[in-house]
């Protein structure tokens, strides 16, 4: 009984922060490929990582394979984490849930993207998770300032963003 209530509550939780809106229309195939992490709000699974990238590809079942890599500056070694992402609603809406740990999913929402799919702003399910991504290791200042403005308007504390080095 309690387990049923827990899963009902878990399932009913929002996967996107209040005030954020997932990109629509979203083109899944254009989003696939390698992305460089330009900035993030730090959290335990990416602690001490630099040179971080995410590579997205299609799984046979239609879900998206998520292959995250980063260099741990404390352990002085590369780390990798592989998970999968599924669309929460329609594949036309950039609202996904991603899992690296079995049945436990977190929100992954593309809330800003340029027309060529070169730069993206990604929100987690709440204000503790935010990423700025780019197809290259740099991002134009105009795009950066626009994404920071969008994030601030939603309620993110952008002064806490870590700016990632890509030197390996």
Jot down its keywords.
168 residues, alpha+beta, Lipocalin, 8-stranded antiparallel β-barrel, 3 helices, 9 strands
CATH H-level superfamily:
Calycin beta-barrel core domain
- Quickly give the structural class: alpha+beta
Number of domains: 1
Reported for the largest beta sheet, the result is:
8 strands, antiparallel, barrel
CATH hierarchy class name: Mainly Beta
The N- to C-terminal Cα distance equals 51 Å
Assembly status: single chain
Low-confidence segments, given as residue ranges, are 1-13
Mean pLDDT: 91
Annotation field: number of helices: 3
What spatial form do the alpha-carbon principal axes imply?
A: globular
Q: If classified by CATH, what would the architecture be?
A: Beta Barrel
Share of helix among residues? Answer: 10-25%
Let me know the number of strands. 9
């Amino acid at each position: 009984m309690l387990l049923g209530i827990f899963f009902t509550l878990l399932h009913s939780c929002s996967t996107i922060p209040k005030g954020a809106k997932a990109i629509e229309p979203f083109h899944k195939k254009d989003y696939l490929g390698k992305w460089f992490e330009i900035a993030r709000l730090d959290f335990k699974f990416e602690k001490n990582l630099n040179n971080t990238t995410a590579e997205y590809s299609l799984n046979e079942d239609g879900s998206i394979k998520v292959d995250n890599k980063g260099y741990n500056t404390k352990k002085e070694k590369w780390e990798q984490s592989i998970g999968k992402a599924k669309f929460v609603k329609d594949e036309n809406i950039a609202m996904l849930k991603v899992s690296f740990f079995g049945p436990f999913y977190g929100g992954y929402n593309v809330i800003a993207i340029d027309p060529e799919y070169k730069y993206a702003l990604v929100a987690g399910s709440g204000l503790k998770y935010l990423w700025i991504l780019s197809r290259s290791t740099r991002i134009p200042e105009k795009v950066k300032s626009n994404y920071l403005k969008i994030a601030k308007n939603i309620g993110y504390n952008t002064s806490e963003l870590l700016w990632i080095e890509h030197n390996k």
